[in-house]
Design brief:
This protein has 176 residues and is mainly alpha-helical. The chain is built from seven helices and two strands; from the N terminus they run βαααβαααα. A two-stranded parallel sheet has the order 1-2. Helix 2 packs across helix 7 and helix 3 packs across helix 4. It is globular, with a radius of gyration of 15 Å.
Length: 176
């Protein structure tokens, strides 16, 4: 079933996923640095090419990514036409490419021997840590975007910019 996503219920998915899967507690992020840095590095590459992207677009991309995963877990399909522009789509793809087997065939090739991608339980098990990371990431984006709409990207550039290649190859990391 095709479900339309509207701006007024955009943030609802964050609350639903937070309630269902939880989040990474503040100061416990180090254990998941590889996931965060892969997602952040992919988004930073997009920002370097398009400086008009800001924290609001990251939040929208996080919501779209969470809805996309929710669709896998519930066998639903979401229609993002009312909430997704080209910038948000690029960021959402950058996020999903970093771990999603349905977006990134390289990830699929690696994990399909370990997870039954047709089982919603197996998918929930696989996606759980990535969902928790995205739920936590939302709070970081909001914090860093308070004073400057591009603050999160500036923080990324100062923290990991020197290790993120200046190319458009999207990386992935599998936490299994």
């Amino acid at each position: 079933m095709l479900k339309k996503v509207e701006y007024y219920n955009f943030e609802k998915i964050w609350g639903d996923m937070n309630k269902r899967f939880g989040t990474i507690p503040k100061s416990h992020e180090n254990r998941y640095n590889a996931i965060f840095s892969t997602i952040d590095g992919n988004m930073l590459k997009i920002f370097r090419e398009n400086k008009k992207i800001n924290g609001r677009r990251i939040l929208e991309a996080i919501y779209i990514s969470l809805y996309t995963i929710d669709g896998y877990l519930k066998s639903d399909t979401y229609d993002f036409t009312k909430v997704m522009d080209e910038d948000t789509e690029m960021l959402a793809r950058a996020i999903l490419t970093s771990f999603d087997p349905f977006t990134n065939s390289e990830v699929k090739d690696i994990i399909e021997s370990k997870f039954d991608l047709s089982s919603q339980e197996a998918l929930a098990s696989y996606f759980e840590i990535y969902i928790k990371c995205l739920v936590r990431m939302k709070k970081s984006v909001e914090f860093w975007s308070t004073d400057d709409p591009c603050g999160y990207f500036y923080m990324l550039e100062s923290e990991i910019g020197d290790i993120v290649p200046d190319d458009m190859k999207m990386d992935f990391f599998i936490y299994a």
